[in-house]
Amino acid sequence: MAIRQISAGTATRRTPAGTAARRIPAGLLAPAGVTAALALLPVGYLLVRAGEGGVGGVTGTLLRTRTAELALRSLGLAAVVTALCVAIGISLAWLVVRSDLPGRRVFGVLAALPLAVPSYVAAYTWVAATDIEGFAGSVLVLTLCSYPYVYLPVAAALSRMDPATEEVALSLGRGRLGVVLRQLRPSAAAGALLVAMYVLAEFGAVAIMRFDVFTTQIYTSYRAGFNRTPAAVLGLLLVLVTLLIVAAESRTRGRAAYAMRGAPARRPPVIRLGGAARAGALAWCAALAGLAVGFPLVSICYWLADGSSAGVDATVLAEAVAATLGVAAAGALLTTALAVPVGVVAARYRGRTAAFLEQSTYVGHSLPGIVMALSLVFFAVRYVPAIYQRWPLLVIAYAVLFMPAAVGAVRASVLQSPPVLEEVARSLGRSPLRALREVTLPLALPGVLAGAALVFLTAMKELPATLLLRPTGVETLATELWTQTGSGAYGAAAPYAALLMLLAAVPGFVLGRRSLKEVS
Amino acid sequence: MSLRRLVAAALIPLALLASACGGGDGESFDDDSLVIYSGRNKNLVGPLLDKLKTATGLDVQVRYGDSAELAAQILEEGADTRADLFFSQDAGALGALGKHQALAPVAPEALAKVPAEYRGSDGTWVGVSGRSRVIVYDPRTVTVPPKSVFELTDPKWRGQVGWAPTNASFQSFVTAMRVVSGEDKARQWLEAMKANGAQTFSNNVNILDAVDGGKLRLGLINHYYWYEKVAEKGQGGVPSRLAYLPGGDPGALVNVAGVGVLKGSKHAAAAHKAVDFLLGTEAQKFFADTTKEYPLVSGVAIAPGLPPFDSLKGPQVDLSKLDSIEQTIALLQDVGLI
Q: A209 near A137, Cβ under 8 Å?
């Protein structure tokens, strides 16, 4: 229902050049449809399991006071973390891209690196070293781990922004900040959406922080009751909430399509920071990097020094590295391949079908890993047993889970390549698909690759779905880390945690560098 | 970068992946292997399960995970399950699989090796090692540890007791309290504990860490977590101590880790041999010496430092009743703990 509302809204709105309500060519619609169908698989499973409980089972779960209480807690947590990430992401991006902050290139890369820290590792290190826990602890850890989701798109948008708009505003007596923030709204909203969805589906870090949220109840239904109906009902509720948030973000973006243009003719002026402002800004950037990246790294070194289980079997470690890199790379490739048709449709077409295709890809990401993984167990065992507990199924799981980041990257980069070029190609006799392939996709490629890097990095850290779907006997860095910490062997866990963060830092570094491309 | 070069670059990890799928042992589902889903940690039972190849004559593949999540996975797999044997951290997950008709009967000779209270009443699973519920306390702040869980509702322990209501062992303990002390008393205790500010944790390890870190005075855990931590950190690195409760207190419940053979197993004979192996002397010694648990087959000595098995004054409970977990869940939900 949510989908229908927005699409109706978007259709009546004035659309940007080149996005007239044309028919989507079959060559694009078919692959986009495959992507959407794959992303919606978990919903099919949840409906089957929720249906088994009958009306009584469904309403019984929904009407419990605890359900409402936990839903509110989750929404509250998501709201606070998202707001903080937006504030941090915009402030960092502004300092790095627009100010003369000393060492801003270094800070620009550092601002992307928290992506390399798994939230469950960060949560554990904070609980072990300090007294922080509960709501405050969850906010701290989730904010520190996810502000790059806002920083990266905002930094990119800031460096693309045409200074002419600001100058006009200044000449009309309006403040610079207001204009800038207005123009940043779509990119900040896209990042905020990823953060909000990530927080809603998160389980590991909040469990360590002892803060019960909506996903806690989903896990509890599986872990304690062996009753899959309540878990399915709650999962569906989570999907619904996510779709509402997606709809809200889509409205923000729809109204603000003007920000999505090509590169500016010249660079915006550098803002000079005064002495006190400079010291404050330096302290702010350094504190964030220290808390988000430095602290977990130091803690892991301490595990290594403190535990008698320290020491590692090089063969096991090498196998885990190979498995992690291989499956995450394959996951990034498949996710990107599936995301391209949907991202192009989202950038170039309007209407119900386009909105439905795009929004369906958010479903998998909105669910906790265990729900998504069990849904793939259900379908694979029944319909494609040949891939069950083999690599391809895990790769598909990553695609379902991490599709939104890739779709967003494709959409944003296709939007930046001027549609007029595609139209010229078509006027020269190219078919729509060929024009897309020969003109727009090459221009969008760097942005698409950045999306792939983000998926690669996220897939490396994934734990719950990997545990359920990996081939029997195979361990990734994340599952090894789970094994070692599960038996309290923190010394033995340290090399896996360190290596996982180190490897994930490579795509993180690339993403951070990219955000600085236009900073001199 | 041109599209062509990109595609070429993209093919490299795919090729790596394909070679990873093709080669290497233990990396793909193999019809000739005995597949074990183990809810017990690889670090703890891995060395033991490695010996199963000789015992069963088949290659053994072990899938490690969380007991309850693996049980959920087996239920989703249904008749087509890939698991031959399920090795669970607790009786609850085995009981649930038994109730869903997913388990085949264990051979009577195997069942007979273990006291009746430590196996499924329907004969579909058998305990292989025992663990005692204990109170872990911080001797720096607690001179006289409580002698019963019922003392924990005393105001002097306000906000000082850690528990893990979502944890399966904790829930078995609550079930024991329901069976031994009655529904009303169990509910009153849970409500009084909640009112007394009991601190909720997600698992036993986190409770133990909090007591050692001086953040909590008391915690309700399983005994072997403490011994594991001492093995990792040394006695000096673990300031906490354990109190084994006397007098049939529900807080002294002896719970089990156990195994069941899947009905859908294609290697049932080997799976039953694996059960025999886990109940044999070598495996029972391993549980005693390495994981510091209580062997359930008579004639195997416990690890030094542990109180004798028959000195544990757990409540008189039929463990098979512990799979009546639904009522416990309902009670915990009703009190607002999960």
A: yes
